Amino acid sequence: MATLTSPSGGTQTETLDLAAKFPGVVADERENYSGWIVEKDSLIEVATFLRDELSYDLLSSVTGVDYLPEEKMEVVYQVYKTTGGPGIFFKVQIPRIDPMEVPSVIEIWPGADFQEREIWDLYGIKFSGHPDLRRILTWEGFEGHPMRKDWQEAFYEEDTKPFKSRWPEGNHVHAETRTPYGANLKFPQKFDPEKWTPTDPEEALYASLKKATITDEEGLETDQIIVNMGPQHPSTHGVFRAVVVLDGETVTSLKPVMGYLHRNHEKIGERNTFLQNMPYTDRLDYFNSMTNNWGYALAVEKLMGIEVTERAEHIRVIMSELTRIQNHLIWIGMMLNDLGTYFTPALYAFEERELILDIFEIASGSRMMCNYYRFGGVVRDMPAEAFEKIKGLVYDRLPGKIAEFERLLTENEILVSRLKGIGYLSAEDAIATSMTGPMLRASGVPYDIRRADPYGIYDRFDFDVVTRPESDMYARYIVRVEEMRQSLRILEQAIKGIPEGPVLPGRPVYQVRVPAGEAYGRIEAPKGELGFYIISNGKPNPWRYHVRAPSFINLTALEKMCVGNKIADFVAILGAIDIVLGELDR
Amino acid sequence: MYGKGILKGLGVTLKRFINTYVDDIAWWGRRYFKPEGIAHRSSKDARGIFTIQYPEEKLPTPEEFRYVPFLVYDEAEGGEKAVRCTSCGICSKVCPPQCIWIVRTNDPKTGKPVPQPAEFYIDADICMNCGFCAEYCPFDAIKMDHDYEIASYERNVYNLDKLLKPASYYAGIRPENAAREDEARRIKEEAKAAKAAAAAK
What is the value of ipTM here, to two decimals? Predict the structure, then answer.
């Protein structure tokens, strides 16, 4: 009987043998891999069993892997329990011959919706049973499936960095000179860009919306209208677009359209060496580069099997809790902007955030693109000046400022009437659609990875997991305010407990040795569960680098929250999810 | 009472409004355009206006602040530039966006590599200011700059001429780092000299 070793560290208490229970299941026995390999015909049966019998109710991540040398494709599922504890990996392998098809798990975990569309888009694996399988990050006229290992981008130089042309005979050439305008994109066969009109690929999108003509009691026919919010709408926090069907002012159906900021972060990540990915993670959720760094470092450290030094662990906690505070402050400011207060709360929030960014700048050298974490620790010790500033903020300034925000907003009748009862999402729906972070906790589910599956040294700190049962927008606001207070509690303990010592084990090396295998590092980022799925084949570059972005997956429930509400509330509901387009579009 | 919450909130904005003037008076003449005023406005005791009137005022850059890299040279006797870079190529290998191009010098007679770069390019438009090149350089030869005002109408491809800056400049922007590194290099060289002396005996 195979004992399951959890992908995130500890061993699982229940020893369960899926292979004995289901004929189409074998244990994944590749070195440093864990979990099960499921035949695609038994996938639905196994998935239902995991959810209903073993209560693995939260689908954390679904992603594809292209094993080009072995001529097969793999779909990897990671499921967890919202009651906490380690999760289970299971995989479906299919031969790498088009058309590739895997049954969709959307009926079991509706949270698979966008993620399966992403796999179809980037890997070209079809999911039978998916109701709306369109491309999601690239556009409908896109040629090929870019994450496949044999797909090459327009500015392609070599499969992996470092590029050989840089040294010892590196004569500088502009990338545009090598790939001039016009030669920098490919089209599908029989596609003529001159004849193309934007309506062609949009038809599938508009057809996916539920649109109806309503006849009222007097026999008067009223039509519903389609409104495109974005991609240049100020309330969408960047280039995000939502196509909304309106009945009067009420939203009846909604589809988010994304990918305007898509740069194929994961492909870039697979060209990079392990270390080179670190500054790229800063650019995902650019408000929270400290936590992004941590998620990635965690995954690689798991694979390398190295210990983080004690002082570095404390610095990591301090930095990421400061990040959480500044993210929630910005969220409150921007949320109020969306509601129409126009910049007063936003500027109040920016003031505190500036002071936190000053600390990041002193420690890491940059306010937003921190690039501060390294495998096994952090890049350099926190200067004494930064530590003094942190103490000043945590003990003297921030508690009062959070209270001031509460005085300004919490009881404000206008705010309360805009938030209470709006954007309802029940706990069941929130779990089913893979919501994580403050969104899930505002639906009354006490699920916080710092508690449920602790990483770093979070198991040593005393803090509460903030939840609210109301499941509306007001609950999301209260949860974030309280979370800032809990972050301060953690900060106080971390400041007290921080030991002296080195911040990196051994000498810094730029070419880290990562043994072959897979690892999934997940952390409680301010926006939700941020996961990095890494596969190494022992070479200097990751074979697979996948980001489970909370902004992206939290949008799955957007339609559910908006239907029945007014169009003006859509803006607020979207704001409450707390999306960042850098992470959403990747 | 309905409306109490709004009044409470308005109280906060009113207090903030008054605070602006309180601090302006308390710091009369020192609050704006003076280093101490700027430092106060970005401290934990800051109240009122906290914005910095760029470009008349500038936030001081902390020592570790990093921007597009430059190459350090030591001022040798006779005003010659002793370039620290040995063109080993580590920075161009570790660079995540691959924006460093180095041409290694080869001895024209023997064809063997000479520890000095013939050409050195940094495409500053591609540089992501991550600081890896400076972090992993074993010769303290490439360092991150503090000069962030590099906006221009042209593409910024820096060559050796533009990149080379004296060690005194480096010590000016990063005094602590420069002192630490100089000390480490001195110890290393002394050890090397001692070893050579021991071998000569």
Answer: 0.91
